[in-house]
DNA sequence: CTGCCTCGTGGCACATTCTGCCACGAAATC
DNA sequence: GATTTCGTGGCAGAATGTGCCACGAGGCAG
C-alpha cells in the first residue's frame, strides 16, 4: 500500500535520486500519509458514511484542523488514488515521443495506468466497494474522470507544433479513449479477465475516429 | 424557463392529458418549483458559493427543513437540468423502435437532447457559468454524466432479446457516444457553430466501433 | 356536513463538515 | 545563539443535512 502513495505529488524531481528530505518535509508526509492510511482503513472497515473526520483524526493522531489543511474535504481523501493515476497518465504523456500519433501516445499512457491499476488491484477493489456503498460520496467511479480530460487534451496538443487543444477530434479522441478505459476498468473489477492487458488493447483499438 | 421543468419527474403519464392534479400536488410542485427558480436566480446573481440554503429559502418563502425534503443537497438543485436531459434521453430510448441499431437509437435520442439543449441555451449557458465559477460545486459539467451511462446501457440492452448489458461493446458505444455529446456540448457553448445540429451529427458519426 | 386520516410543512435540536484567526513550539536560517 | 519560517492545534463560527415532533389544511368516507 505504501508504494501506492506519495512519490508523485510534489512535482517529481527529474534530478536523480534527490532524496534530501528535510525533517519538516518528512513530518509533513508522515502526517498526510498517516491520515490517508487511517482514513482508508476506516472507510473499508465501516464504510465512508460511518466514518467522521474526527474518527480519522483520532486514528491518525492529528487535529481536525490539520486534516483540513491537507485535504479540502473528506471526499478528497478518497480521490487520492484517482489523482495518482492521473499523474501517472500525464507523466507518461509528457515523456512521450512527438513522433507517434496522438492516439498511440494516449493509449500507451493508458496502458501504463492499466498496469498500475492491476498492480494495486486489491486496494482499488476495496475503494471501489467503499465508493459504491456510500450514499454521500459523489465519486462513483474510482477511475479517470471527465474533469481531467481537458488537461489531457492540452498535453496532447502541446506535443504538436500548432498546439491546438480546441480541435474537437482531439477532444473526442481523449473522451472516447477515457470512456474505453472506464469500460475496461469496470470489466477488470467485475469479471475475471484471463488476460487483462490484452483486453485493454482490444477495447482501446475497437474505437476508430474518422479523419 | 418554466417549460424547462416539472412535467417529467413523476413518471410521465402515458394516459392522455391526465391533468387531474389535486390541490396538494399543485402546492408541492409550487414549493419545489419556487425553490428551483429562486435558487437558480440567486446562483446566477451571486454565484453558487455565495448563496446559502437559507437565502434560497427566504427567496422562495419556505423553511430550510422543507428545502431539504425536496433536495438531498444544495448541489442537487443544480443537477436538476442534468436530470431533465437524462430523462429526455431515456424516454426516447424507451420509445425507440427495436428495428434500428443500438447506435442509431442512441444517436437519435442524443439528437433530441441536443435540440433540447439548444432550445434552452440561454439558461444552460448561465448554469454552465455558475458551475465553472464555483469552488465547491462538484458538478463541473452540466451535461450527461458517466454515472448515468450504466442506465443507458441497460435500456439499450433491454431493446434486444438477449438483454445483455454487460457486453463491453455496448458499454463502449454508450461511453464514447456520451463523450462525443460532451465534446459537442462544449463546442456549442464556447464557440459559435453555424449549424449546431449538423455539427452534432458530424461528431457522433466520427466514431466507429469495430464489430 | 362532520369527523378521521393523510401528508406537507416548519420549528428545534443536533451531528458534521469546513474555515478564519491566533498562538505555541519546533525546525530552518543566518 | 537569535530570528524567521512554518506545521500544528485550539476555538469559535458559518453552513449543510437529518431526526423527531406537532400543527394544520387537504382528502376521504360516513
TrEMBL record, chains A, B:
Composition-biased stretches (Basic residues): 1-15
GO molecular function, one term: transcription cis-regulatory region binding
Pfam families the UniProt entry points to: TetR_N (PF00440)
Entry keywords, A to Z: DNA-binding, Transcription, Transcription regulation
Region (Disordered): 1-20
DNA-binding region: 52-71
Gene3D superfamilies: Tetracycline Repressor, domain 2
HTH tetR-type domain segment(s): 29-89
Name of the protein: TetR family transcriptional regulator
Organism of derivation: Actinoplanes lutulentus
Amino acid at each position: 500500500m505504501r508504494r501506492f502513495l506519495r512519490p508523485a505529488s510534489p512535482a517529481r524531481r527529474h534530478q536523480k535520486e534527490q532524496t534530501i528530505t528535510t525533517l519538516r518535509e518528512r513530518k509533513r508526509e508522515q502526517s498526510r500519509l498517516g491520515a490517508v492510511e487511517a482514513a482508508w482503513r476506516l472507510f473499508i472497515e465501516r464504510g465512508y458514511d460511518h466514518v467522521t473526520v474526527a474518527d480519522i483524526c483520532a486514528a491518525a493522531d492529528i487535529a481536525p484542523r490539520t486534516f483540513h489543511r491537507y485535504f479540502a474535504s473528506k471526499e478528497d481523501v478518497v480521490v487520492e488514488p484517482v489523482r495518482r493515476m492521473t499523474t501517472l497518465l500525464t507523466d507518461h504523456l509528457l515523456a512521450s515521443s512527438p513522433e507517434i500519433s496522438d492516439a498511440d501516445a494516449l493509449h500507451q499512457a493508458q496502458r501504463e495506468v492499466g498496469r498500475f491499476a492491476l498492480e494495486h488491484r486489491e486496494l482499488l477493489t476495496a475503494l471501489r466497494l467503499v465508493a459504491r456503498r456510500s450514499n454521500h460520496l459523489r465519486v462513483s467511479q474510482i477511475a479517470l474522470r471527465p474533469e481531467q480530460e481537458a488537461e489531457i487534451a492540452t498535453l496532447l496538443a502541446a506535443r504538436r507544433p500548432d498546439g491546438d487543444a480546441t480541435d474537437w477530434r482531439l477532444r473526442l479522441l481523449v473522451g472516447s479513449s477515457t470512456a474505453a478505459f472506464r469500460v475496461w476498468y469496470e470489466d477488470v473489477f467485475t469479471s475475471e479477465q484471463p488476460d487483462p492487458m490484452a483486453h485493454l488493447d482490444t477495447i482501446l483499438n475497437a474505437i476508430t475516429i474518422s479523419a
